[in-house]
Amino acid sequence: MAQTALIIVDLQNDYFDGGKFPLVGTEEAAANAAKLLENFRNKGDLVVHVQHVSTESDAGFFAPGTDGAEINPAVAPNSGEAIVVKHGINAFQGTDLKALLDGKNIEDVVIAGAMSHMCVDAVTRAASDHGYRATVVHDAVATRDLEFGGKTVPAADVHAAFMSALAFGYAAVVSTEDYLGNA
């Protein structure tokens, strides 16, 4: 039977209301990620928390040693759960994530977190490139409005565009309810 891991990406305090870089729908995404987390814990499956800590001296968010860089209590790690600290967008780059997954014979990864258009996109594509079967739980992922060419692209459109791109060739993209109903 294939081994599965849950990867929760960057659900850190700065992305929530009152943080330095709040996203649209972070609370809802975290609530759904918490449901996935409970399911994985109950099954005894591997849980990996990814935490972005900036190395830039003028970091606007996720600055080292700040409350904003801490993983939000909604999905806080339990003792013994893996925490992969990254300093860039892709959670595989410059970290031991691949070694951790391979060491546990993981073949499938389930991904939740933030942001749709950055770190979730990057880890999903990298997971696929490394040969893992990836599932993104779309309502356990948050993002924000973006701007391009003088036009504001609403977060919901950013999210839909990235989820549809991932579904096209990199991952199964499902809701929390559908994932838990089939888990």
UniProtKB/TrEMBL annotation:
Listed Pfam families: Isochorismatase
InterPro entries xrefs: Isochorismatase-like_dom, Isochorismatase-like_hydrls, Isochorismatase-like_sf
GO MF term set: hydrolase activity
Domain Isochorismatase-like, first and last residues per copy: 4-176
CDD domains: nicotinamidase_related
Record's keyword annotation contains Hydrolase: yes
Keywords, alphabetical: Hydrolase
Name by which UniProt lists this protein: Cysteine hydrolase
Species of origin: Metarhizobium album
